[in-house]
Amino acid sequence: MSDFIKDFWNSNAEKYKGSHQASWGDEYAIQLETANISSNIKDGDNVLDVGCANGFAAIMQCAAHNLKSMTGVDFSESMIKFAQENKADSEYRDILTFKMGDVRDLPLPDETYDVTYTTRVLINLPNWEEQKKGMTECLRVTKKGGTVIFSEAFWEPLARLNALRALAGLDSLVEHDFNRYIKKERMEAFMTELGFQFACVDFSSVYYIGSRFLRELTTDYKSFEGYSNPINAEFYELERKYSGGNFGIQQAYVIRK
After folding, report:
1. How many CB atoms lie within 10 A of CB 102?
2. How distant, in Å, are the alpha carbons of 51, 94, 128, 150, 249 from that of 198?
3. pLDDT digits (tens, 9 = 90+) for 222-238
4. Model confidence, pTM
């Protein structure tokens, strides 16, 4: 990965330490993506969190399931430092392992994990070829019969959401400098080429329409810092009941190996 990307995440880790904000300020979206991943995990699984940041979400998965093991890898030294601190304070420390690792070259043996997942990790890679390397590595370390989940940001729903915003005269949402959103058509073609069955789960469209469109039409959103606008909580609760429409930038491809 480019040095400026690693520098950004090291800086975020030092700034936010053990908080969810080290990986993203939108806690509601984190809750949605974590719950979606959790639905694919069973008690007794060996789970791998690739790009685990400070371990915040990995520990949430430990709380949701009686896991055999949870391993987290991340390329940011500072993220792993705070993951180790979170582990030390966790009741799940006996099953938790955090270590340095690059998604494109995981320091792990073949066919080891029942479930492997990423959350907004592949989008940190600079191009599609590098993203394919990361996906191939995740598939490699997962057992036959296991599950791989790529919970990432995608280009097509960004374009749909921006078309909706344009109708209301709102500025377009853009990728950050450290993100390269994935095209769903590329993802699906690549998984088909590899011969894997997959499903795309749209777990965030209602939340995105609310928090990235309706919020700006119905509240003085600029008076709230970041994602703290209380109306986002309402859209989060609505998302837990309903979804669909392909407006959710965060979606997940679930692959059965």
Report:
1. 18
2. 21, 33, 19, 11, 18
3. 888 889 899 999 999 99
4. 0.96
